[in-house]
Specification:
mainly alpha, Arc Repressor Mutant, subunit A, 2 domains, three-stranded antiparallel beta sheet, 3 strands, 69% helix, elongated
Amino acid sequence: MNDINLGAVETRFAELIWANAPIRSGELVALCQKELGWKKPTTYTVLRRLCEKGLFVNDGGTVRPLMTSEEFRAARGERFVEEAYGGSLPAFIAAFTSRHPLSDEEAAELQRMIDAARRKG
């Protein structure tokens, strides 16, 4: 994945593809007309950009994802933590919780995630 930064419009477009994949490119054009008010050239221009970013492929007129939306979000999150916090998840959590205290439920969920990660490793 070359560039995981997407603007709001690209994100909305990607979500449409993920929700409907695999989808024929003609159907995608119609969907974008209905949902986003786009014309065919706009749809194909944005699709080409997202294909170049490694998110999707237009193979024989069928658009399919090369990664799930969950994989995309995970990669984007990893990149953010790497760039902003030197790859330190504890540093990110410390910064986040300094302004947004965790609820008991959030703390318990984080603890469950930590416990599950320890069992894997």
